[in-house]
């Protein structure tokens, strides 16, 4: 089952996709728009990517404040979630995205990507980190369930 990861910003949406086994996330592209509220083309492109990758689920970054509260950007992300569910018909899971953009920038810096070029990749890489966090949590849940089953059997 493939999953699309999304990093929703005021003018961009970073997109990542999982491998068919749901183990790793790879950056795909950045969907750009001129105005924050012009989302028709953005939603249409996400629908195209859903079909192209045969995604069965979406993971959308939830930009929480560092104190775990939800601010204005989180509200906009929750509105976008509703639009995505209506447009794609897929379930959308919200995933805490705190510090993913910072981590994406750090990874590019360590990888030698020049500062002026980082903007071209940061949102797609952030989407990849959001999705990877979600995939890792699924893997940990599965491992814990298997461990619990072994203890019950033993």
Question: How do the helices and strands line up, and which of them pair or pack?
Answer:
Blueprint: E1 2-8, E2 12-18, E3 25-32, H1 40-53, E4 55-62, H2 72-88, E5 92-96, H3 100-110, H4 115-118, H5 122-153
Key phrases:
154 residues, alpha/beta, Nucleotidyltransferase, domain 5, five-stranded mixed beta sheet, 5 helices, 5 strands
Q: Could you name the CATH class?
A: Alpha Beta
How are the strands of the biggest sheet laid out side by side?
3-2-1-4-5
What is the rounded Rg? 16 Å
Q: Which structural category do the helix and sheet elements fall into?
A: alpha/beta
Number of strands: 5
> How many domains in all?
1
Helix content: 40-55%
Q: In whole angstroms, how far apart are the ends?
A: 32 Å
Shape: globular
What's the order of the H and E elements? Answer: EEEHEHEHHH
Largest sheet: 5 strands, mixed
From the 3D coordinates, which CATH architecture would you assign? Answer: 2-Layer Sandwich
| Overall pLDDT level | 87
Low-confidence stretches: none
User: And the CATH topology?
Assistant: Nucleotidyltransferase, domain 5
Fourth CATH level, the homologous superfamily: YqgF/RNase H-like domain
Number of helices, counting only DSSP H or I runs of 4 residues or more: 5
Tell me what portion of residues adopts beta-strand conformation.
15-25%
Concise structural overview:
It is built from 5 helices and 5 strands, in the order βββαβαβααα.
Please give a structural write-up.
- It is built from five helices and five strands, in the order E-E-E-H-E-H-E-H-H-H.
- The protein is α/β, with parallel strands linked by helices and 154 residues long.
- The protein has a single domain, classed as Nucleotidyltransferase, domain 5.
- Strands 3-2-1-4-5 form a five-stranded mixed beta sheet, with helices on both faces.
- The longest helix has 32 residues, at 122-153.
- The radius of gyration is 16 Å and the shape is globular.
- The mean pLDDT is 87.
């Amino acid at each position: 089952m493939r999953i699309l990861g999304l990093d929703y910003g005021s003018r961009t949406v970073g997109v990542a996709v999982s491998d068919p086994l749901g183990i790793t996330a790879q950056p795909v592209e950045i969907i750009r728009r001129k105005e924050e509220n012009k989302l028709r083309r953005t939603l249409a492109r996400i629908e195209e990517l859903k079909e192209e990758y045969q995604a069965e689920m979406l993971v959308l970054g939830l930009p929480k404040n560092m104190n775990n509260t939800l601010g204005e950007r989180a509200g906009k992300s929750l509105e976008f979630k509703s639009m995505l569910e209506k447009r794609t018909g897929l379930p959308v899971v919200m995933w805490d995205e705190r510090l993913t953009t910072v981590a994406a920038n750090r990874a590019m810096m360590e990888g030698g990507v020049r500062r002026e070029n980082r903007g071209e990749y940061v949102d797609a890489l952030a989407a990849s980190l959001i999705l990877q966090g979600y995939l890792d949590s699924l893997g940990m849940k599965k491992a814990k369930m298997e461990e619990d089953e072994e203890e019950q059997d033993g």
